[in-house]
Amino acid sequence: MFDDYLQANDAVRAAVRPFLSGRRTVPYENGVIAVDCVTLLTLNPRAKSTVEHQTTLTPAQLRRVIICNLDTVAMPDLSLTGHQALEAAGQHGPLTLPGLRTDLQEHRGAVVQGVRDLVRPEMHDRIDTEMLRLLASGMTAFIDDDTRAIQQMLYNVGLTMETLGWARPDWVQAVREFSLVRPQPDPRRLPPRRCPSTTELRQAERIKQAIGARGLTDVVDVLFILSVIDGHGLFHPPTPAPKQRSKDIRRKAKATANRLRRRIQEIRAGTRAATDERERRLAQEWPRLGQAALHLEEEKIRCAEYQTMRGGRIVPGGKYANRRPAKELTHALSLIDYHLEHGKHWARPQWGLSDGYRGRGSSPPRGRRLRGGTRPRPTPQSEEA
User: Fold this and answer.
1) Where is 328: in which H helix or E strand?
2) What is the C-alpha to C-alpha distance for residues 224 and 230, in angstroms, rounded to an integer?
3) What is the value of pTM for the model shown?
4) 321-336 pLDDT, tens per residue?
């Protein structure tokens, strides 16, 4: 145990480094010194903005340690109750460490995915999942069930990550739902989940309720909703890149939709296996949905490409969270509400996005052109409908 590490001078810190590097042996003069211990550092963090500056540890060193900020933990008055912990420890002998049952190598992917469900995506590079797997294997000496041993490790790590602000808001639920029985996603293929902002969750919930209350099944309604959401920045506001035109985006979306159509045809012919639930569902419902389903998939791909090709993403988070004014978001929702209320019998609308793109389809009747920033005005025809 090294107390007040930050108060030590440079020479003392250099002598402590072998204990922090994780090396088991250290060359010394003509021999080798074996270092086999668990090091505990107590720090008085500096008033800095980042953990590196507060602790003087490099990112590589932070990966090899489990750090906890006790300043964020409500502590009792240790002057009155601190002796109770010492007395309780004195009543028990040394802790007996039984041998390990397993090294959990077969559950490496599940452990990695469990840690990623626990920690915010931007902090994944600060976590050594191999070290946490070793800690979980150590818990198997005390807990017979591998799932419970991993859960205990995840919960303990989550408590420390929460003190740093590195844990997800729903990390306790993720630990509770962890299981080795159900199929675990491959962490090498799935991108980390992003945490949507509070504004996004609130706006998405309002749109979800508006759509669910009417039980929409019409492709035209879905296309209109996607276009309004895209045009009003309820997705991540795009960052234009040079020499990227809307025509290129439409071409890429069309090519992607054609590849999807060929995959569905091969799946229905039995020459190809479905890779995910979406492809299986489309293959089963293709005779009923037909071209409308393909057109809807193309529009969904187009909306995604419109964001990703310009440096955006569908679910904003962190510093890229939605910053659109509440008035504009409310106007977009009112536009959707008006369409759902009066537009059930409209022809397929045209819409405009910030780059001038207009979707394909016939113009609305009586010259009504629906654009992202213009609220459609009612007409006697629409009111009667």
Assistant:
1) helix 326-342
2) 10
3) 0.45
4) 444 455 555 666 666 6
